[in-house]
Design brief:
The complex is a heterodimer. By secondary structure, chain A is mainly β. Helices cover 0% and strands 53% of the residues of chain A. In chain A, strands 1, 3, 4, 8, 9 and 10 form a six-stranded mixed β-sheet that branches. A four-stranded antiparallel β-sheet of chain A has the order 2-7-6-5, with no helix packed on it. In chain A, a hairpin with a 4-residue loop joins strand 8 (84-92) and strand 9 (97-100). Chain A is globular and about 40 Å long. By secondary structure, chain B is mainly β. Helices cover 0% and strands 50% of the residues of chain B. Chain B has strands at 4-7, 10-13, 19-25, 31-37, 43-51, 54-57, 64-66, 76-78, 87-94, 103-104, 108-112. Chain B starts with a strand and ends with a strand. The chains are: A mainly beta, B mainly beta.
Chain lengths: 110, 113
């Protein structure tokens, strides 16, 4: 399973765009990049998933370059409620499993 | 539609005791998994199942057993609890092993003394 590397923490202010980058150098052909959000004392919640180029949904965008060795989660105009831990994981569709890294703690300040 | 439910929410065990953490989902999902999360750390996969009657090991399977006799239920058994198993345990489910999001339960906080 491909390992992922993310920054341990990031700070931002309300209304700013936040970009969290994840490195996954050993990504395989059948792997998909997936991001989850976790609040204290709760289970993770799915944000977005992609294979290459750009994926956008109502809460985030995911940018994946052609070599797929990294990805960037973009959160537009964050609010205080976006303060959470964000996990990047590489989902292996053959094995049906993945490894969560240690995540990025995002703190949004007023 | 309750989603993924886990019981109990909290549990304290003495070293050497055994117990079963319950997990159930009502979404007819084929894929279910168990993770543990130690303080300040990410989630580590313990066991997973791609369907009833099929289970496989994740990253940290030692000390845990699972079975999947129905689509809905995926219990996790601790055979002989150790302090190193103090953690928060999350159960998750998804439509199948493919490209679908996992839905996580609220977690069970286990302390082994």
């Amino acid at each position: 399973l491909a390992k992922t590397t993310q920054p341990i923490s990031m700070d931002s202010y309300e209304g700013q765009e936040v970009n969290i980058t994840c490195s996954h150098n050993n990504i395989a052909t059948n792997d998909y990049i997936t991001w989850y959000q976790q609040f204290p004392s709760q289970g993770p919640r799915f944000i977005i998933q992609g294979y290459k180029t750009k994926v956008t949904n109502e809460v985030a965008s995911l940018f994946i370059p052609a070599d797929r060795k990294s990805s960037t989660l973009s959160l537009p105009r964050v609010s205080l409620s976006d303060t959470a831990v964000y996990y990047c994981l590489v989902w292996n569709t053959n094995a049906g499993k993945s490894t969560f890294g240690d995540g990025t703690t995002l703190t949004v300040k007023p | 539609n309750a989603g993924v439910t886990q019981t109990p929410k909290f549990q304290v065990l003495k070293t050497g005791q055994s117990m079963t953490l319950q997990c159930a989902q009502d979404m007819n999902h084929e894929y279910m998994s168990w993770y543990r999360q130690d303080p300040g750390m990410g989630l580590r996969l313990i066991h997973y199942s791609v369907g009833a009657g099929i289970t496989d090991q994740g990253e940290v399977p030692n000390g845990y057993n699972v079975s999947r006799s129905t689509t809905e239920d995926f219990p996790l058994r601790l055979l002989s609890a150790a302090p190193s198993q103090t953690s928060v345990y999350f159960c998750a489910s998804s439509i199948d092993r493919g490209l679908y999001e996992q839905y996580f339960g609220p977690g069970t906080r286990l302390t082994v003394t």
